[in-house]
Design a protein that fits this description.
The structure holds 2 protein chains of 2 kinds. By secondary structure, chain A is mainly alpha-helical. Chain A contains 24 helices and 2 strands. In chain A, strand 1 (30-31) and strand 2 form a beta hairpin. In chain A, helix 3 runs parallel beside helix 8 (151-162) and helix 23 runs antiparallel to helix 24. By secondary structure, chain B is α+β, with helices and mostly antiparallel strands. Helices cover 24% and strands 36% of the residues of chain B. Chain B contains 9 helices and 20 strands. Chain B has helices spanning 42-50, 72-75, 92-97, 107-120, 136-148, 166-183, 194-200, 218-223, 228-233; strands at residues 4-13, 16-26, 31-35, 57-62, 65-66, 77-80, 154-158, 186-191, 203-208, 211-216, 238-248, 251-256, 259-264, 276-281, 286-288, 294-303, 308-314, 317-323, 333-338, 343-347. Chain B is elongated and about 75 Å long. The chains are: A mainly alpha, B alpha+beta. The A-B interface holds A 443, 445-446, 448-456, 459, 463-464, 467-468, 470, 543-544 and B 50-52, 71-79, 81-83, 85-89, 98-99, 101-102, 146-147, 150, 152, 156.
Amino acid sequence: MKRALPALLLVALLWLVLEPLLLVAVEAFSFDGGWSLRAVREFLVEPNEWRAAWNSLWLAVASVVLAGTLGTALALLTRLVAFPGRKVVAALLALPAVLPPLVGVVAFLFLYGESGIIARSVMAITGSTTPPWRFEGAPAVLLIHTTTMYVYPYLLVRGALASFDPALLEAASSLGASRARALRTVVLPLLRPAIGNGALLVALSSLASFSAPYVFGGGFRVLPTQLVSTRLNGDIQVAMVETLVLVALALIALASASRLGGPGVRGAGKGLSPAPRRSGASMGAMVAGWLATFWLLLPHLALLLVSFVPVGAWTTSALPESYTLGNYLALVAEPARWRPFGTSLWMATLAAMAAALVALLVAVVGRDPGRRLSRWLEAALALPWAVPGTVYAIALATMFSVNQPAAGRFILIGTLWLLPLAYLVRSLPITGRAMMAAIRGLDPTLDEAAATLGASRWRVFRTITLPLLGPALAGATALAFVTGLGDFMTSVILYTYDTRPVSLEILGAIRQGEIGVAAAYDVVLAMISTAAFVLAERRSGATG
Amino acid sequence: MSTVRLQSVSKRFAETPVVHDVSLDVGEGELVALLGPSGSGKTTLLRLIAGFERPDGGRVFIGGEDVTDVDALRRRCGMVFQHYALFPHMSVAENVAYGLANEKLDRNATAARVAEALALVDLAGLENRAVTALSGGQQQRVALARALAPRPSVLLLDEPLSNLDPSLRERTRRELRELIDRIGITTVLVTHEQEEAFALADRVALLMKGVLAQVGPPEDLYLRPASSSVATFVGRATRVAGRKVDVSGDQVTVAVLGQEFSVPGANLAAETAGAEVDVLFRPEALTIDDAGAITGTVLRRRFTGAADLLTIAIGEVEVEVAATPERVSPGDQVRLTATGSGIHAYPRARSA
């Protein structure tokens, strides 16, 4: 029994995360029931494929540089410099983390698009009748990546700074180091692990990014969009090769990130967050902080604005002239419109519950970081993280299109269960890591204290471990829920008409020109996500 | 109530021996302190008794019963952890009641036992407080109440006072000893502070590098240290190179500082006359006396309250000497004489 649970858990994880990927690899090299390099050859001789792979690569690097710099700079600004409204700015900058991803992308359309607010303002001022720019191609995608992905390095670096010993800064300045030198020689080196992790998240998100290049890419093809169109053209094998190339790029990112992150230096600090410095620079800091916040939240504000604009009522003016609740009413008027909310909600809830349960089990079994089993579990958890969402969707589609119970394969495609399962796998890396970190942060002497008081393992788990993990569990569940709720990348590949989630409804509305309705969908989705986090916070407040 | 017996217990972590062949008997109702510098294995020894570690060799007995293969949760030792390990999500009462669950008491009986345990540590009435809202001293007492509530046969204390303010520590130490005397429980305490071990324990077990260096009542360790490392760890002592001269009865004469001193001889029984020996001087071994035969120069003077601690250069060596205040100051020439106690001699340590 003591060994059965860990073994079972490992098998389940490998079945969920590893087998689909292996099947993709097998598919890439098979043809007409035999082995073949045909698909690989076709990939290699086609310049478009090379271009897509190259585009994916440099887009990832550029996104890391831009979003990494922005996020790190904002984290340093809001942690180390005192200026009026610092805490508000810090909270607002973290806000995009809880918003569903598609919301961000569509919002850019209303803001920077040819008929977006800014383009129209320019037209109104210059009196021109043609849009000043086309918001399209690589620059558009890069802008979107920078302004949406900064949040990963921002949150990670802020987190690292929270346990940064302020005495180190004081020590540096008492030794005559200028603030710039202290930053360069003390702060940044200690932040390397956080910056490395942030860069990795940006790189993986950029490689996996589908909606931004899909909506704004134009002729700018990257691997995720390329493989979806190859798939639609019916060449499954070539799509699988593209998938493997994408996985290879993700693994390169993983390897370089662990280099960039370096061996984490454990500070001997006391774990107090540094007191922000008050100085003459606070005026500049305030302006920079508020401007950046305004700029980064602008797409979301634009979205909110557009959601109140009647269909077809906003054609030439810079800002809409009339407002209505009609778009929101349209959502509830027709069952076909509101039903996807129900679908998304139950699928995300189911996936979140299951993810939380699996994450909890993995954390309990893998608590001791020194054991080999723990390292295996961690690796299994990290795998879906290293693999872009589109890839996972395709892998799961491959895996669950055949009925081979002995291989753990069932026909789930076209059923209600495939999407929740996909959401579960997608959110495992974050929920699993969060729970693992939480359980390892628990004081082991609490368990020993309970044992000396005669409590069995099960009682210790039920009365000590579980209640103390409550806040982390609630947070991880909320995170998994929001990931599933806003998911577009996996849904677009795996959905059926009956399991149509909100994100596809949004896409449909945009295609039909119902921009206001799409925005209203997004706003409601964002509100549900925020509510989930508030609820989780409440819950953790009650137990912690 | 019960006894604790360690029989040739050894424990190694990743090939590093932490505890080596330790045998120790703790009698009924006795309080034994495991004393030693950090890394000496004293906490590991306590964890071996509690059942958190399994020995690689030797047996552990509690109440005469071999518990070497028994889980911590069935050994039922009451334990107070260094950082208390109070369950932060539970109230004081819930913490104290935690160990009573196995007794299947009804609600009133549980409440009565909790109240009884809290009364023992003078915390009656704090049942519904959150443990996180308590002061350090109160937390320490809740931890003690929680350990005692299931009426364990043995009480284990891991540095129980190290997280308290010095002013509070003195009082808590006295209260702890009174409480243990009142309930008469067999107790093993871990501490790295000699003062604490001496003030609390009936017997002190001094551990050095995983080996039991000496076991005995506090005054034994101080007055009859078994080795020069025991002498320097327990109390202050200055080590000076000397030579064994002669034996008379159970006393030995050693030559050091240009003089001859008579010291307890058991430690030097195996040494031949003329052998190099280490002589340790406690601060009270010498005293300032104008008729003394030893002359020296006062180098430093450190005020310690009851007495000054003088560092005096005698020839090539520096010796620490306790003296009543205001008599001398640095630079003064003084004469010293032996007080007749506080000098110990040992075979020459290889590193010295």
